[in-house]
Amino acid sequence: MISLEKQIVNILGPIDNTTTATKETGYVDISGFTDFSFLIQLGVVTFASADTASAVITVEAATSAASSATEVQVNGIYRWTATVGTDTWGTPTAFTAATGVAVAADADNMLLEIAIDPSVVAGLLDTGCWLRVVMTEGENTAFVMGVIGIGTPRYAATTMVSAS
User: I want to staple 90 with a disulfide (CB 3.0 to 4.6 A). Which of 53, 80, 107, 149 is the partner?
Assistant: First the structure.
């Protein structure tokens, strides 16, 4: 049976981000959710040298689904999975808007969950409640990632609310 308690949004299909220093997902309207998380699935993560062996994932809020100069970085909570095929998660850890979540070369084939409180986002913006994930990387030779959003709709229904 398919659950109507959670809504799942495919935000970014798996992509190898070797040619771009910054990769942004599309925006998701989270105004109709009581909670919302990004699930970021990483594949191969290889950096060109030890000097550039890191990437940072941040979350930005905006007043609409269009990119503009008004994006605001958002605080949240993250946790990493252990190895593939296990149901082991790390300790939930808070991150600040300025620092985001660091991704190191040992993040191969891991899943990163980033939880964002919609009420915090609403407090940052005058109108709208749109979020996107931004990955800023060091110099790499491989960085495969995909992003899925999952949230609890404010009002469960047989037809899901639009998140776009």
Answer: 80
